[in-house]
Amino acid sequence: QVQLVESRGGLVQAGGSMRLSCAASGFFSIGTMGWFRQAPGKQRELVAAITSGGSTNYADSVKGRFTISRDNAKNTIYLQMNSLRPEDTALYYCNADHRTLATVTTVWGQGTQVTVSS
What is the pLDDT of residue 80? Predict the structure, then answer.
């Protein structure tokens, strides 16, 4: 079946770094992939996205600190997070556009917790 499997997040001190990965399987064709996050009491927000061609888009709050990358051969995206701040604490979700000949649907991962301590 179509699924996204995210790497485990964890706890890191402010100023530290962490790398997340998200592997897609079962897709007919994969379009744009991305990372979203949701902090307690807040709406889910886009962190970064990357097209199949490698074009990227970032939330203003993470520009210069986070880098999204993609390995199309492995159907995997990565989120390198540097200079982490307590406000980056959230449940991080991977998503991907599943393309078939007739439809495009968005698939979500299960989410992985990232906690940044001050």
Answer: 98
